[in-house]
Every structure is written in structure tokens, then in C-alpha cells.
């Protein structure tokens, strides 16, 4: 009976407590208080979500930064200490203008180095008579690396000089060069066939090949633009050749004695009209009459100036004597930069 009384006695207390906790009536005076109570109840769900989202954003940023640092470190390791020349790393250097060295304050682009080296490496692996993993093969690859670096240095220096001399190479210049290259003894090949032959011979895509041509044209134009001495010698050689009725051997000897020039006189022998000789297109020389002396001719490479005299020709071949004035200013400049420690290379190569 006492227990029942205790329970009965407590019931009014619970009802009383519930009555006290019941929300009061909302009036104009209490609306702000009720609003705050409702908002306070929602904050316990809102703030944890905001905190988690904020933490996720920070973690994502940190992971991205760490990934970029790791990828950069791996890329640097592959390119510089390991000297990775794979297609992937080459494509990276085509997108990012990474330097492989410096010449006279001008960056030497890694892509210029790789586009030349990969061409030589592929040709040796496919058409060479030695295995690349042999001692002789490794020596030849070391030679190609050195040669490719020297060419990339020359292109970088040419790029620096070209800016001050307002020398440019346009897409039209490259197209014109390729059109001439497509002319063969059997006729003009299509662009598709020409691209396929470049891919087969050198494993170069049209874009890679155009880069090679662009660099070559730029270097050649700069080499001619800065070599005033060679231009003067070529002009004098033409005058003396005309006076001596094309006796180029005598002209070369006389100029060597008076000017100390490095002129070379020689004879081509019968060469195909669709071929090249010393950077000259024989098809243009073949248009001269037999016995005629040309004007000063510029090679399409940095080989220099020529004066030629046609001695014999037929429908497909031409024979001519020539006097050659080489370009020396660019090579002299690069040799001086090397002597003055103005050339830095960021990868280790065998000389």
C-alpha cells in the first residue's frame, strides 16, 4: 500500500513538471526568443557539415599540391639526372619550355635537343649496323647526344639574335620548304606520302618535322645575317670569277693569299637535278647554260655562299665547278661563349 501511494503521489509531480516545460504562447514579445530557440536547434546539424566540408577542401588542396610537387620531382629526375628521351618526356618538353642549358643568357630548350636526338637515335636503331646496347652503339649515341646539344645551342643563340635583327620564320616559309622537298626524280609526291616517308625514316610526326625545319631555317637565316665577312668575300669571289672566266681554283688561291679567306674550289661531278649539293638545289643550277657563271648563291643550310659554273648537263644531271665561301661568324661566336663560360649545360654529356 505504501508503494502504490508513492506512485500515486508522484504522478501529480510529473504532470506539473510537464506543464512547466510546455512552450509558452508565442506573442509579439516572445517571437524573437522562440526564433532563436529554433535556430539554435538547427545549428547543431549545420556546423558539423560545414566543418567536414571545410576539412575536405583543405585536404584536397594539400593532396593536389603534394601530387604536383611529387610529379615535378619525378619529371626533373627523369629529364636531368636520368636523361629520359622517351616519347612521353619529349611531349612534356613540347608543352613546357624546359631548359636543357643556357647560352649567352638565352635558354636552350629541351625540346630542341630531344627532337634532334630522337631523330638520330631512331635512324641508328633502324638502319644502323650496330646494336644500341653494344659498346659501339653507346659510343654512337653519346656522339649523337653531343651533336644534338650543339645544334640546340646554335638554335637558341639564333633565336636570341633573331629578335634583335627582326628575323622570323613563318608557316608559309616552312610550307614552301616542304613543297620543294616533295619534288623527286619521278615527280611530286603527295603530302600524305611525304609525311609517311618522314615517319618511316625518322619516326617524326608532321609537327615534329616542322619544328626541325623551323629551327633549321631560323639558324640559317641568322648565320647569313651576322656574317658580313663571308658576304664580302662572296661578292669579291664573284667579281674575280667573272674576270677569270670561271677559273675558280685560281680565284681561291688568289683570295687566300690576299684576304686569308677559307674559300674552297671544286667540282660536283654529275649529280641528279632533283638532289642537293652543299645546301644548293641542283634543279636551280641546271637552268644555267653550259659555261655560264652564276651570281652569288645562298645555300639553304648554313653551309655558306657559292658561285658555280655549269660545265656539263643533260636532261636529268648537271656537272658544275664551284667556289664555296663558308660561314664562320656563328660558330666563332659560340666558341667564344664557350671559352668565356657563357654556355651552361644542365645534363652531363660525353664530349
Question: Mind explaining what this structure looks like?
Answer:
Helix content is 61%, strand content 13%. It has 351 residues and is an alpha+beta fold. The chain folds into 3 domains: 16-79; 87-226, no CATH class; 228-327, no CATH class. Strands 5, 6, 9, 10 and 11 form a 5-stranded antiparallel sheet that branches. A 3-stranded antiparallel sheet has the order 2-1-12. α5 packs across α8. Residues 1-8 and 13-22 have low confidence and may be disordered.
Question: Outline of this structure?
Answer:
The chain contains 12 helices and 12 strands. It has helices spanning 2-21, 31-79, 87-95, 110-127, 135-165, 171-181, 191-202, 206-226, 228-243, 248-259, 282-285, 329-339, and strands spanning 99-103, 106-109, 183-184, 187-188, 264-267, 271-272, 276-277, 280-281, 297-298, 305-313, 317-325, 343-345.
Record the SSE blueprint.
Blueprint (H helix, E strand, L loop, with lengths): L1 H20 L9 H49 L7 H9 L3 E5 L2 E4 H18 L7 H31 L5 H11 L1 E2 L2 E2 L2 H12 L3 H21 L1 H16 L4 H12 L4 E4 L3 E2 L3 E2 L2 E2 H4 L11 E2 L6 E9 L3 E9 L3 H11 L3 E3 L6
Antiparallel strand pairs: 1-2, 1-12, 3-4, 5-11, 6-11, 7-8, 9-10, 10-11
Q: Count the strands?
A: 12
Distance between the termini: 113 Å
SSE-based structural type: alpha+beta
SSE pattern: HHHEEHHHEEHHHHEEEEHEEEHE
**Low-confidence residue ranges:** 1-8, 13-22
The largest β sheet comes out as:
5 strands, antiparallel
Shape: elongated
Strand content: 5-15%
- Helix count equals 12
Q: What proportion of the residues is helical, as a percent range?
A: 55-70%
Mean pLDDT: 87
